[in-house]
Design goal:
single chain; alpha/beta; TIM Barrel; 8-stranded parallel beta sheet; globular; binds ribulose-5-phosphate; binds fe (ii) ion
């Protein structure tokens, strides 16, 4: 029911495949891949070649978070590189409906992300079409930032909406997720939790296991 998506942004890039294998050993089923273009967000991370290369080393679900301007330009190539879920920012798409259609046509699951200061109401017209909504709980661009508490209200509002509609749409939260912030997030209705520094800082397998044990508290 609950899914941990370790974000490789905090991994040792010289040992990506190794760190990914450790996360899988601990029980993770997703791998969160942060693509940054230096325009939508200040930093530049990695793109298709790195994702395609890593695809050869793991069967984890590739959950690609596109922090790029006009992400519609890259949907097909990110899918071809191995993405299973492609999440685009509402703020980066002039034609969001078209991009969601493009992602679905590619065969990937479609996610839409919101920056902390972007209200849930901006997704009103597309909420019934997406497989996942990503609530950013830090301003995107860097790992290791502090969780922004008001984003919990957005998670609650989304879960209420999906429950009312009888939809089992995933709600993902990304940014500052750790063993202190994860319980309020689950209680607010999040079911896909991204964690970068809390997974890849230290013993990766043990860190993932800690999250898995917290999930068990809620799955009983
Ligand atoms: O999208 C992201 C940053 O924009 C990352 O997924 C996120 O920051 C994960 O890192 P941490 O868990 O250390 O906050
Ligand atoms: Fe992310």
């Amino acid at each position: 029911m609950y899914i941990l998506a370790p974000s490789v942004l905090a991994a040792d890039f010289g040992k990506l495949a190794e760190d990914t294998a450790k996360a899988r050993e601990g029980g993770a089923s997703y791998l969160h891949l942060d693509v940054m273009d230096g325009a939508f967000v200040p930093s530049i991370s990695f793109g298709m070649p790195v994702i395609a290369s890593l695809r050869g080393y793991t069967d984890l679900v590739f959950d690609v978070h596109m922090m790029v301007e006009d992400p519609g330009r890259y949907v097909e190539s990110i899918r071809a590189a191995g993405a299973d879920i492609i999440t685009v920012h509402q703020e980066a798409c002039t034609h969001l409906d078209r991009v969601i259609g493009q992602i679905k046509a590619s065969g990937a699951k479609a996610g839409v992300a919101l920056n902390p200061a972007t209200p849930v109401s901006t997704l009103e017209c597309v909420l019934d079409q997406v497989d996942m909504v990503l609530v950013m709980s830090v301003n995107p661009g860097f790992g290791g930032q502090k969780f922004i508490p008001y984003t919990l209200d957005k998670v609650r509002a989304l879960r209420q909406y999906f429950d009312r509609k009888g939809l089992s749409t995933d709600i993902q939260v990304d940014g500052g997720v750790n063993r202190d912030t994860i319980r309020p997030l689950i209680e607010a209705g999040a079911n896909v939790l991204v964690a970068g520094s809390a997974v890849f800082g230290g013993d990766v397998k043990a860190n993932v296991e800690t999250f898995m044990n917290i999930f068990k508290e809620y799955e009983r």
